[in-house]
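Researcher: Good morning. I'm working through a list of sequences from a screen, and I'd like to move beyond sequence-only analysis. For each chain I'm collecting a predicted structure so we can compare shapes side by side. This is the next one on the list. No need for commentary yet; just the structure.
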Amino acid sequence: MIQSFLMLGQSNMAGRGCLHEVDPIYNEKINMLRNGQWQMMTEPINYDRPVSGVSLAASFAEAWSNAHPDEEIGLIPCAEGGSSLDDWHPEGILFQHALSEARFALRSSDICGILWHQGESDSHSSLHETYHEKLTVIMQTLRDELKLDNVPWIIGGLGDFLGKTGFGQHATEYQQINEQLQRFAQEQQHCYFVTAEGLTANPDGIHIDAASQRIFGYRYFQAFSQKSHIMQPIAGEEQSLNVKRAYSQKEQIYIHSLELASHTITYAQFEALMAKVMQP
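Model: Good morning. Structure tokens for this chain:
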């Protein structure tokens, strides 16, 4: 049975890291939910916008797979760029869509974790004052609807690059949101906070860059596996950037099929590569 994880929140959960800035992750044990079916993961996982890119979920899943080499993991992408906490109210479209996707996933997987990153859209106009209350309603309703009372909920902090430049300059109250996120994680059972300390942004000043997303995902995995808060950077976390390894036959077929579909190789080259892959 696939062990699956819900991806919820806004654009830094969906991922806006530039794809060419990090090595790709291909792993036949990592799946993503598309059209109600499991497919081998490829980034962008959470295609909420044409600008979707690297998210924390891929390195989280890779770390999980390395720790559980005989099992399969599934990612359930439901994040929506620019969404506020009000947009995630249980009666709203985003919450209802996440419920629908989760129920599809439960037909063929066990949901064993929820990955949450949201708050940039609420880092202004004193919205932090009601953040804890609203997030509590969202979390409890989701747990009740899906019967996930004891499933870990991993929530990431907002980056210190906010409130300065680009699109991020308007998120002037991100520190107050971080305080609410930490408070929430400390008060709720089976909920763990992950710091964004030291992470860096794209030039837009709001979106976590690709290398930092890889590191962030590794921190999320450590929080999940240790069932503890991650309050500072982890020694050796840069290892999450090194994903090179020998690919299995299934992975090679997948990669070459992607290359053919994206016109980076010709059909003749594809046939030659496949002949090598299929050799006993």
